[in-house]
Amino acid sequence: MVDHLRTRAEFEQCLRANENGEVTAEFNGMHLRSVYQPIFRRDNTVAGFEALIRAVGVDGSHVCPAHLFRCLDQSHPDFANQISVDKLARVIHLRNFAKYAGQHWIFLNMLPSSAVASIETFSNQNLMVQRLAEMGIPREHVVLEVVEHLHSDSVSLSAATNQSIKNGFRIAVDDYGVEGSEEARVRMLRPNIIKIDRSLVQSYVGGEVEAILRSIALAKEVGAEVLVEGIENQEEYDAMKALNVAYFQGFHLGMPQPLSEYFDTNPLDFEPLRQAK
């Protein structure tokens, strides 16, 4: 069993191409593939896609992403393996996204335990910048998602995110509004985008409006745009469109699937299977 992928050659050895030309990966008995969920603007056009990993074990069983990327202490025996999967996922996400990039953004999740190091890698290493350039993906189209309440060292995370923004990347605070989220940390991070957690959407539709309105006000204060995630029905979508929200995401608007399912024969001509209503 390989504990930790370190070199480009080691990552390359894990990569495969399936019958549709999509890049997948094999690592420690798991088959990894990319799916992408569209993110819509207010005018129903697609701003970009959140890249998500799907994993299948050797026995054909699906591995839950929440378990795969659960919070682990550095002393945990699976920690190094988890870091490798986290990095390998971004490798295949970017490779598959490259031929469809166009003007769309790609949202990449950062594992909490490695977010600072991962962000610094994207921001500071010339090799990563060069690889993005080779793939035709502008840095300003890469959105790095962090979960602020899962980080104990807010100062280091803030320094890394600020450097990323200076170097042309975008930063999104993910899952904002769940227990543990703090306005002070968001003020320190000053992200480009705040992704409002589904729980606040449900509360708002249920009549508890204060939490999401406070989150939107916080975004305005720090100069961030708002993305509401987890929209699962028309009622929720209508309610969110009535607010001052820039972007929308959820199963009601588009399911996670390979990018090839969203494009016609010309990769630069986007034809979503399901438009936002």
UniProtKB/TrEMBL annotation:
GO function terms (MF aspect): cyclic-guanylate-specific phosphodiesterase activity
In which organism is this protein found?
Answer: Enterovibrio coralii
Q: Which PROSITE patterns match?
A: EAL
Entry superkingdom: Bacteria
How is this protein named in the record?
Diguanylate cyclase
A Pfam cross-reference name? EAL
Q: Which CDD domains match?
A: EAL
Q: Which residues form the EAL domain?
A: 16-270
Q: InterPro entries, alphabetically?
A: Cyclic-di-GMP_PDE-like, EAL_dom, EAL_sf
